[in-house]
Prior knowledge:
By secondary structure, the protein is mainly α. 79% of the residues lie in helices and 0% in strands. The model has no long low-confidence stretch (mean pLDDT 89).
Amino acid sequence: MATVRTRRTHPLTTGSAALVGAVLGGAIGGWAAPMFVVLGGLVVVVSETDLRERRIPNAILLRVAPLLIAGLVLAAVAARDPARALTAVGWAVLVSALFYGAAVAVPGGLGMGDVKLLAVTGVPLGWLGGGAVLTAAAIGFGLAGVAGLAARRRGRWTDGVPFAPFHAAGVVAVVLAVGATP
């Protein structure tokens, strides 16, 4: 088995992950709530890692993906709505295929970690519907684009803009908006 490099997580990151997870889980409620608690923790941790290291570790994504898929299946069974689980996975696959194509077409832009992040976050967002998946991605790309332009103008982030924090903002905004909808 491969050794996983670990770095002690800052207490602020841990606390923020717990808080964001609790807020997202509470916003959605029901059987899907645990899946959104995990999603909230994920986007905080990968955002911090992407800002610090300019990468999104497979070690995180490959551990969280099965949890989210299991949560999706359990929520679908409990809600007696297996079609919703298939739809959610379908949206996750669609968005990851779309952005994989973009990453291959424009080397040096979107990284493969970003593509995998879109796929993994697409599972719970797909539970909310295709619009949630696409809107979160659009918000993330829009914010990253604005930040990239501002950073370039100031001569910062010459090695590229970390995508995860901006995608995290999109994920949180979409989940809170859907959760607030009656």
